[in-house]
User: Fold this.
Amino acid sequence: MDAALKERFDTLVNAHPVVLFMKGTRTFPQCGFSARVVGILDDVLDEYETVNVLAEPEVREGIKEYSDWPTIPQLYIQGEFVGGCDIVTEMSENGELNDALGDQVREAKAPELTVSAAALSAIQDASADEEHKSLRFEVTPRFEYGLSFGPQHDGDYVVELDGLTVFVDKKSARRADGVSIDFIDGPGGTGFKIENPNEPPKVKQISVEDLKKMFDDGETFELFDVRSDEERDTAKLDASKPLTREVQDELMQLPKDTKLVFMCHHGGRSAQAAQHFLTNGGFTNVFNVEGGIDAWSLRIDSNVPRY
Assistant:
Protein backbone atom coordinates (compact mmCIF):
# COMPACT_ATOMS: atom_id res chain seq x y z
CA MET A 1 0.00 0.00 0.00
CA ASP A 2 1.12 3.53 -0.78
CA ALA A 3 2.74 5.03 2.33
CA ALA A 4 0.78 8.28 2.08
CA LEU A 5 -2.55 6.41 1.90
CA LYS A 6 -1.62 4.21 4.86
CA GLU A 7 -0.72 7.30 6.88
CA ARG A 8 -4.08 8.80 5.94
CA PHE A 9 -5.92 5.72 7.21
CA ASP A 10 -3.81 5.67 10.38
CA THR A 11 -4.76 9.28 11.04
CA LEU A 12 -8.45 8.71 10.32
CA VAL A 13 -8.98 5.70 12.55
CA ASN A 14 -7.01 7.19 15.44
CA ALA A 15 -8.38 10.73 15.29
CA HIS A 16 -11.95 9.67 16.11
CA PRO A 17 -13.30 7.20 18.69
CA VAL A 18 -15.60 5.58 16.11
CA VAL A 19 -15.04 5.57 12.34
CA LEU A 20 -17.27 3.89 9.77
CA PHE A 21 -16.03 3.39 6.21
CA MET A 22 -19.24 3.10 4.22
CA LYS A 23 -20.95 3.60 0.88
CA GLY A 24 -22.65 6.99 1.04
CA THR A 25 -23.05 9.17 4.09
CA ARG A 26 -24.68 8.84 7.50
CA THR A 27 -27.76 10.72 6.30
CA PHE A 28 -27.84 9.03 2.87
CA PRO A 29 -26.38 5.50 2.87
CA GLN A 30 -26.02 4.08 -0.63
CA CYS A 31 -26.13 0.36 0.10
CA GLY A 32 -28.25 -1.79 2.37
CA PHE A 33 -25.34 -3.06 4.47
CA SER A 34 -24.06 0.46 5.14
CA ALA A 35 -27.60 1.56 6.01
CA ARG A 36 -27.93 -1.30 8.50
CA VAL A 37 -24.72 -0.40 10.34
CA VAL A 38 -25.64 3.29 10.36
CA GLY A 39 -28.99 2.35 11.90
CA ILE A 40 -27.27 0.29 14.60
CA LEU A 41 -24.81 3.06 15.46
CA ASP A 42 -27.48 5.78 15.36
CA ASP A 43 -29.43 3.89 17.99
CA VAL A 44 -26.61 4.17 20.54
CA LEU A 45 -24.34 7.07 19.50
CA ASP A 46 -24.86 10.78 19.01
CA GLU A 47 -21.65 11.33 17.08
CA TYR A 48 -19.30 9.20 15.00
CA GLU A 49 -17.15 9.75 11.92
CA THR A 50 -18.07 8.34 8.50
CA VAL A 51 -15.95 8.07 5.35
CA ASN A 52 -17.75 7.77 2.01
CA VAL A 53 -15.66 5.28 0.03
CA LEU A 54 -17.67 6.01 -3.13
CA ALA A 55 -16.20 9.51 -3.26
CA GLU A 56 -12.64 8.24 -3.79
CA PRO A 57 -11.82 4.95 -5.59
CA GLU A 58 -8.39 4.74 -3.96
CA VAL A 59 -10.01 4.88 -0.50
CA ARG A 60 -12.59 2.26 -1.46
CA GLU A 61 -9.91 -0.23 -2.51
CA GLY A 62 -7.23 0.91 -0.09
CA ILE A 63 -9.28 0.37 3.08
CA LYS A 64 -9.80 -3.28 2.09
CA GLU A 65 -6.06 -3.79 1.96
CA TYR A 66 -5.48 -1.73 5.12
CA SER A 67 -7.89 -3.83 7.18
CA ASP A 68 -7.40 -7.08 5.26
CA TRP A 69 -11.17 -7.23 4.92
CA PRO A 70 -12.85 -7.60 1.50
CA THR A 71 -16.15 -5.78 1.95
CA ILE A 72 -17.68 -2.44 2.88
CA PRO A 73 -18.81 -1.17 5.41
CA GLN A 74 -15.98 -1.44 7.93
CA LEU A 75 -16.15 -0.23 11.52
CA TYR A 76 -13.23 0.95 13.68
CA ILE A 77 -13.52 1.66 17.42
CA GLN A 78 -10.65 3.34 19.28
CA GLY A 79 -8.35 2.70 16.31
CA GLU A 80 -9.09 -1.04 16.19
CA PHE A 81 -10.85 -2.78 13.31
CA VAL A 82 -14.12 -4.34 14.50
CA GLY A 83 -15.62 -5.85 11.35
CA GLY A 84 -18.29 -5.50 8.71
CA CYS A 85 -22.07 -5.55 8.69
CA ASP A 86 -22.62 -9.13 9.88
CA ILE A 87 -20.18 -8.82 12.77
CA VAL A 88 -21.52 -5.42 13.88
CA THR A 89 -25.07 -6.77 13.72
CA GLU A 90 -24.15 -9.80 15.85
CA MET A 91 -22.30 -7.60 18.35
CA SER A 92 -25.32 -5.31 18.60
CA GLU A 93 -27.63 -8.24 19.31
CA ASN A 94 -25.46 -9.89 21.98
CA GLY A 95 -24.43 -6.66 23.74
CA GLU A 96 -20.75 -6.73 22.75
CA LEU A 97 -21.04 -3.53 20.70
CA ASN A 98 -22.13 -1.45 23.68
CA ASP A 99 -19.28 -2.97 25.68
CA ALA A 100 -16.79 -1.97 22.99
CA LEU A 101 -18.21 1.56 22.78
CA GLY A 102 -18.10 2.01 26.56
CA ASP A 103 -19.06 5.41 27.90
CA GLN A 104 -19.73 6.73 24.39
CA VAL A 105 -23.11 4.96 24.44
CA ARG A 106 -25.95 7.43 24.77
CA GLU A 107 -27.95 7.34 27.98
CA ALA A 108 -31.38 5.92 27.18
CA LYS A 109 -34.33 8.15 28.00
CA ALA A 110 -37.92 8.66 26.99
CA PRO A 111 -38.39 11.22 24.20
CA GLU A 112 -40.15 14.52 24.73
CA LEU A 113 -43.13 14.93 22.39
CA THR A 114 -45.58 17.77 21.77
CA VAL A 115 -49.05 17.15 20.34
CA SER A 116 -51.18 20.14 19.34
CA ALA A 117 -54.82 20.47 20.34
CA ALA A 118 -55.83 19.92 16.70
CA ALA A 119 -53.77 16.73 16.47
CA LEU A 120 -55.10 15.48 19.79
CA SER A 121 -58.66 16.06 18.64
CA ALA A 122 -58.03 14.25 15.34
CA ILE A 123 -56.49 11.29 17.17
CA GLN A 124 -59.38 11.09 19.61
CA ASP A 125 -61.89 11.28 16.74
CA ALA A 126 -60.09 8.38 15.05
CA SER A 127 -60.31 6.26 18.19
CA ALA A 128 -63.23 3.98 17.42
CA ASP A 129 -63.48 2.37 20.87
CA GLU A 130 -61.90 2.16 24.29
CA GLU A 131 -59.39 -0.44 23.04
CA HIS A 132 -57.78 2.13 20.77
CA LYS A 133 -56.74 4.84 23.18
CA SER A 134 -52.98 4.36 22.89
CA LEU A 135 -50.89 5.58 19.99
CA ARG A 136 -47.68 4.10 18.63
CA PHE A 137 -45.11 6.51 17.16
CA GLU A 138 -42.15 5.32 15.09
CA VAL A 139 -39.28 7.15 13.40
CA THR A 140 -37.16 5.04 11.05
CA PRO A 141 -33.43 5.68 10.40
CA ARG A 142 -34.48 7.45 7.17
CA PHE A 143 -36.88 9.63 9.19
CA GLU A 144 -40.04 8.05 7.87
CA TYR A 145 -42.87 8.34 10.37
CA GLY A 146 -45.44 5.88 11.60
CA LEU A 147 -48.54 6.80 13.63
CA SER A 148 -50.89 3.96 14.51
CA PHE A 149 -53.08 2.65 17.31
CA GLY A 150 -51.65 -0.35 19.09
CA PRO A 151 -50.58 -1.98 22.36
CA GLN A 152 -47.39 -1.47 24.29
CA HIS A 153 -44.45 -3.68 23.32
CA ASP A 154 -41.61 -4.83 25.56
CA GLY A 155 -39.05 -2.07 25.99
CA ASP A 156 -41.31 0.75 24.78
CA TYR A 157 -41.10 4.17 26.35
CA VAL A 158 -44.44 5.49 27.58
CA VAL A 159 -45.17 9.19 27.02
CA GLU A 160 -48.30 10.68 28.59
CA LEU A 161 -49.73 13.75 26.84
CA ASP A 162 -53.01 15.42 27.88
CA GLY A 163 -54.85 12.15 28.34
CA LEU A 164 -53.17 10.49 25.36
CA THR A 165 -50.72 7.63 25.89
CA VAL A 166 -47.98 7.33 23.26
CA PHE A 167 -45.71 4.30 22.97
CA VAL A 168 -42.28 4.84 21.40
CA ASP A 169 -39.90 1.94 20.75
CA LYS A 170 -36.32 2.34 21.95
CA LYS A 171 -34.87 2.49 18.44
CA SER A 172 -37.08 5.47 17.60
CA ALA A 173 -36.58 7.31 20.89
CA ARG A 174 -33.56 9.44 20.00
CA ARG A 175 -34.95 10.35 16.59
CA ALA A 176 -38.31 11.20 18.17
CA ASP A 177 -36.99 13.46 20.92
CA GLY A 178 -38.35 17.00 20.50
CA VAL A 179 -40.90 16.07 17.82
CA SER A 180 -44.06 18.14 17.53
CA ILE A 181 -47.21 16.67 15.94
CA ASP A 182 -49.90 18.92 14.48
CA PHE A 183 -52.98 18.32 12.34
CA ILE A 184 -53.65 20.46 9.27
CA ASP A 185 -57.06 20.77 7.65
CA GLY A 186 -57.08 23.39 4.93
CA PRO A 187 -56.83 24.19 1.21
CA GLY A 188 -53.38 22.64 1.00
CA GLY A 189 -54.60 19.27 2.24
CA THR A 190 -55.57 17.39 5.35
CA GLY A 191 -53.31 15.31 7.55
CA PHE A 192 -50.77 15.18 10.34
CA LYS A 193 -47.77 17.50 10.17
CA ILE A 194 -44.63 16.35 11.97
CA GLU A 195 -41.75 18.68 12.75
CA ASN A 196 -38.56 17.00 13.92
CA PRO A 197 -35.42 18.94 14.95
CA ASN A 198 -33.35 15.76 14.53
CA GLU A 199 -34.24 15.25 10.88
CA PRO A 200 -31.33 15.93 8.50
CA PRO A 201 -31.81 18.31 5.55
CA LYS A 202 -33.69 16.90 2.56
CA VAL A 203 -34.01 17.94 -1.05
CA LYS A 204 -37.15 20.06 -1.26
CA GLN A 205 -39.40 19.50 -4.25
CA ILE A 206 -40.86 22.65 -5.83
CA SER A 207 -43.23 23.20 -8.75
CA VAL A 208 -42.56 25.41 -11.75
CA GLU A 209 -45.11 27.81 -10.24
CA ASP A 210 -42.96 27.98 -7.10
CA LEU A 211 -39.90 28.69 -9.25
CA LYS A 212 -41.71 31.50 -11.11
CA LYS A 213 -42.75 33.05 -7.81
CA MET A 214 -39.12 32.95 -6.65
CA PHE A 215 -38.18 34.89 -9.78
CA ASP A 216 -41.09 37.33 -9.37
CA ASP A 217 -40.27 37.94 -5.70
CA GLY A 218 -36.64 38.67 -6.51
CA GLU A 219 -35.33 35.88 -4.30
CA THR A 220 -31.61 35.20 -4.26
CA PHE A 221 -30.79 31.67 -5.42
CA GLU A 222 -28.57 29.73 -7.82
CA LEU A 223 -30.35 27.84 -10.64
CA PHE A 224 -28.48 24.96 -12.29
CA ASP A 225 -29.51 23.04 -15.40
CA VAL A 226 -28.07 19.51 -15.46
CA ARG A 227 -29.03 18.70 -19.07
CA SER A 228 -26.67 18.35 -22.03
CA ASP A 229 -25.59 21.29 -24.19
CA GLU A 230 -27.72 19.94 -27.04
CA GLU A 231 -30.83 19.95 -24.85
CA ARG A 232 -30.10 23.45 -23.57
CA ASP A 233 -29.71 24.66 -27.16
CA THR A 234 -33.28 23.45 -27.76
CA ALA A 235 -34.88 24.93 -24.63
CA LYS A 236 -33.57 26.66 -21.54
CA LEU A 237 -34.14 29.38 -18.95
CA ASP A 238 -31.69 32.22 -19.41
CA ALA A 239 -31.23 32.53 -15.65
CA SER A 240 -29.95 28.95 -15.36
CA LYS A 241 -26.33 27.82 -15.43
CA PRO A 242 -25.15 24.61 -17.09
CA LEU A 243 -23.69 22.22 -14.53
CA THR A 244 -20.25 21.94 -16.11
CA ARG A 245 -17.16 20.81 -14.21
CA GLU A 246 -16.02 24.43 -13.90
CA VAL A 247 -19.42 25.51 -12.57
CA GLN A 248 -19.41 22.61 -10.09
CA ASP A 249 -16.03 23.74 -8.77
CA GLU A 250 -17.39 27.27 -8.33
CA LEU A 251 -20.53 25.89 -6.68
CA MET A 252 -18.51 24.06 -4.06
CA GLN A 253 -16.98 27.36 -2.93
CA LEU A 254 -20.38 28.87 -2.10
CA PRO A 255 -21.59 29.14 1.51
CA LYS A 256 -23.30 25.90 2.55
CA ASP A 257 -26.60 27.67 3.23
CA THR A 258 -26.82 29.06 -0.33
CA LYS A 259 -30.19 28.34 -1.91
CA LEU A 260 -29.50 25.88 -4.74
CA VAL A 261 -32.15 24.97 -7.32
CA PHE A 262 -31.70 22.19 -9.89
CA MET A 263 -33.72 21.44 -13.01
CA CYS A 264 -33.57 19.17 -16.06
CA HIS A 265 -36.03 17.92 -18.70
CA HIS A 266 -38.59 16.26 -16.41
CA GLY A 267 -37.01 16.43 -12.92
CA GLY A 268 -35.28 13.04 -12.60
CA ARG A 269 -31.67 13.91 -13.37
CA SER A 270 -31.91 17.15 -11.42
CA ALA A 271 -33.23 15.26 -8.37
CA GLN A 272 -30.09 13.08 -8.43
CA ALA A 273 -27.84 16.14 -8.78
CA ALA A 274 -29.64 17.91 -5.92
CA GLN A 275 -29.22 14.87 -3.67
CA HIS A 276 -25.51 14.70 -4.55
CA PHE A 277 -24.84 18.27 -3.46
CA LEU A 278 -26.94 17.80 -0.33
CA THR A 279 -25.20 14.61 0.83
CA ASN A 280 -21.69 15.05 -0.56
CA GLY A 281 -21.41 18.82 -0.81
CA GLY A 282 -22.77 19.65 2.62
CA PHE A 283 -25.37 22.12 1.32
CA THR A 284 -28.51 22.48 3.44
CA ASN A 285 -30.92 24.52 1.28
CA VAL A 286 -31.38 22.42 -1.86
CA PHE A 287 -34.38 22.33 -4.21
CA ASN A 288 -35.45 20.28 -7.23
CA VAL A 289 -37.90 21.53 -9.87
CA GLU A 290 -40.57 18.89 -10.43
CA GLY A 291 -41.44 18.44 -14.10
CA GLY A 292 -38.38 20.39 -15.23
CA ILE A 293 -38.21 22.55 -18.33
CA ASP A 294 -41.09 20.59 -19.89
CA ALA A 295 -43.47 21.62 -17.11
CA TRP A 296 -42.22 25.20 -17.40
CA SER A 297 -43.16 25.21 -21.09
CA LEU A 298 -46.57 23.62 -20.45
CA ARG A 299 -47.63 25.72 -17.46
CA ILE A 300 -45.56 28.91 -17.36
CA ASP A 301 -44.16 29.94 -20.74
CA SER A 302 -45.25 28.23 -23.95
CA ASN A 303 -42.58 30.16 -25.87
CA VAL A 304 -40.03 27.74 -24.40
CA PRO A 305 -39.92 24.86 -26.93
CA ARG A 306 -40.87 21.34 -25.90
CA TYR A 307 -38.94 18.29 -27.08
